[in-house]
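Section 5: illustrative case.
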């Protein structure tokens, strides 16, 4: 499938998006998930297959976002390596021509920041959240507000999670000098 055709198609039917999933086992309580999507009705599945074949990544699934009455398919790329090595270079070579180009530029910046682990610092994570909320009509269609994701855990909170091998308990307490002391204990199940 020709590159300019795909770029034009994505200008109309695609999106670059960064979702945030609640994850209490992560440092900031949220996981940033960059995603590239292209939607189309079932009869036009061949277009999504052509895009998938051209980019050599991603998958096609039914679009569950609008409920059971939605009869569309969506081509999705979530793998960060594929985004960095396949999707982003493709749209650098075949640029978008609509306002969606700004979203792509912001998306590219976020994925590149995550590629160098910027999202693992508080400042980097907060910048990624702010950038993500500046995309796609300034986040007006998001289910959650930016402030909900940016809430910093209080220092007296206790976070617990279970994994297959062990249970981790992280507890922090403030002391007189306002330094945070963290106790991490691990015990086998």
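Designed sequence:
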């Amino acid at each position: 499938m020709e590159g300019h055709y795909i770029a034009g198609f994505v200008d109309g039917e695609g999106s670059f998006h960064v979702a945030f999933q609640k994850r209490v086992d992560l440092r900031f309580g949220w996981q940033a998930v960059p995603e590239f999507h292209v939607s189309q009705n079932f009869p036009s599945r061949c277009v999504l297959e052509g895009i998938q074949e051209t980019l050599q990544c991603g998958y096609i699934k039914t679009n569950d976002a609008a409920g059971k009455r939605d009869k569309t398919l969506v081509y999705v790329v979530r793998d960060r390596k594929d985004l960095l090595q396949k999707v982003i270079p493709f749209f650098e070579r075949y640029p978008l021509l609509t306002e969606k180009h700004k979203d792509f530029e912001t998306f590219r910046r976020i994925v590149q920041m995550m590629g160098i682990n910027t999202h693992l610092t508080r400042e980097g994570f907060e910048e990624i959240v702010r950038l993500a909320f500046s995309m796609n009509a300034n986040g007006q269609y998001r289910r959650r507000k930016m402030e909900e994701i940016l809430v910093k855990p209080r220092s007296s909170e206790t976070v617990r999670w279970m994994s297959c091998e062990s249970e981790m308990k992280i507890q922090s307490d403030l002391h007189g000098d306002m330094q945070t002391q963290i106790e991490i204990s691990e015990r086998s199940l």
